[in-house]
Amino acid sequence: MSRQRQEGCPVSAPPKLRIATVSLAGCFGCHMSLLDIDEHVFDLLQRVELDRSPLTDLKHCGPCDIGLVEGGVCNSENVHVLREFRAQCKTLVALGACAINGGLPAQRNHLDVGRCLSAVFQSRPGMDTAEVPDDPELPLPLDKVHPIHEVVRVDYFLPGCPPSGEAIWQFLSDLLAGRTPRVAYPILHFD
Amino acid sequence: MSRPEFLLDGVAVPFDEGQMILEAGRAAGRYIPHLCWHPDFPPHGSCKLCVVKVAGRHVSACATPARAGAEVESDTPEINAERRMLLQLLFVEGNHFCPACEKSGQCQLQAMAYDLEMTTPRFRHFYPDRPVDASHPEVLLDFNRCIYCELCVRASREQDGKSVFALTGRGIHKHLAVNAESGRLADTDFSADDKAAHICPVGVILKKRVGFAVPIGERTYDRAPLHTVAMPKSEDDA
Where is the NADH:ubiquinone oxidoreductase-like 20kDa subunit domain (chain A) (predicted)? Predict the structure, then answer.
């Protein structure tokens, strides 16, 4: 980004789109899959600037054209970050199974969250005196894991656990070119 | 000599008197989506995926007899959108976490979603909580993936003669149950060789200790889409 500001945009070049990415209750696997576009990363960076992302140092999401959200919503901080993304991004994309239906983390939904925490932090062998962390700095978990569309409006869904690099590149290429992305066989997978 | 015909998406399909639209279509090589219909059993009519439009009305192709001269719409944006919504309802009713399901890639519900380009379940999730039944030595039951097609119920009752399964409860509380006083599969005469053990279109009835045996890329619906796999094999293939 800073490089572009220093050198200035060539007159003929179209303005770059801004993309933000985030992992909520994700495993960063969708971001790894994003990097699996390999040398297309260079093509991508010709056409976009990255805003807030695990790949940049920006702390908050500014006005963006596209937001890619990985992971479901499992705690209060996820809710705040997701709302910020929705407020700032013209197009919000649910990336991967977790953002779409809660994913495997949502398998905790049939358990009581308090008992989950005490099972892990209090009653594990060797942690007899430990307690459930209660510093206000830590975000409280929600009682259930939710898909992101249950919290904010979502424009596009790209399924997969994770979506393949090929799928992500095809999807982003469509979006960047102004086409409605079509997620069809063979890039459509839920697993 | 000439058989009566109806039009399926504008193509003439011959049929025998009394034959249902779905069956006549299949016999003529025209696929109509379906989940609860099975060639070995009478129509069930619960999944509604075979919905088609005849004379302005939406009907189940599996249970509607073909009529000469009828104009049937199946593969249209309107009908496929209705099917996609039905699929989305099925997905939010259960816990369909495909990434950890042993049936992924071999599951008719999932393959149907691929066929109809369903990218999201869209509705609010129910996240049902029905305990797994792992009591049987050979077979595991995960009730949270059931789509109530009743194929296992019908197969166990009509072909195995055991009546191991039943649907019970009403409305959203309807669920698959095991027909034993204890409710446990181990307390029935169910066997992994039963027809009912192999007929589940989704990941409810699973054989133990054989999970994830087929490499990704070689699973049923990796190789061919559902609308191809679900069609009867031609005699050349046999």
Answer: 27-174
Distance in angstroms between the alpha carbons of the first and the last residue of chain A: 35
Helix axes A165-176, A40-47, angle to 10 degrees: 20
Is B127's CB within 8 Å of A157's CB?
no
Q: Please, what sign has the CA dihedral across residues B118, B122, B126, B131?
A: positive
Are the C-beta atoms of A191 and B98 separated by less than 8 Å? Answer: yes
Which residues in chain A have Cβ-Cβ distances shorter than 8 Å to B122?
149
Residues in chain A: 191
DSSP β-bridge partners for residue B206? B140
The answer to whether B129 faces chain A, any CB pair under 8 Å, is yes
ipTM of this complex: 0.92
What percent of chain A is predicted at pLDDT more than 90? 84
Q: In sequence order, what are the residues at sequence separation of 6 or more whose Cβ sits closer than 8 angstroms to the Cβ of residue A58?
A: A51, A52
Instruction: Give bridge partners of residue B20 from the DSSP assignment.
Output: B65
Model confidence pLDDT, tens digit, residues B18-53: 999 999 999 999 999 999 999 999 999 999 999 999
- Structure confidence by residue, pLDDT tens digits, A155-179: 999 999 999 999 999 999 999 999 9
Half-sphere exposure for B172 (CA within 13 Å, toward CB): 10
Residue for token pair 């060789």: B193
User: Which domains occur in chain B, in start order?
Assistant: 5-75 (3.10.20.740), 82-217 (3.30.70.20)
CA distance B212 to B220: 13
What one-character-per-residue DSSP string does A55-114 give? TS--SS--SEEEEEEESBEEEHHHHHHHHHHHHHEEEEEEESHHHHH-TGGGGGGGS-HH
The reported pLDDT for the residue numbered A10 is: 57
**Which value, in Å, is the radius of gyration of the alpha carbons in chain A?**
19
CB A119 within 8 A of CB A112: no
User: Cβ of A182 and B117 within 8 Å?
Assistant: yes
**pLDDT tens readout for residues A98-115:** 999 999 999 999 999 999
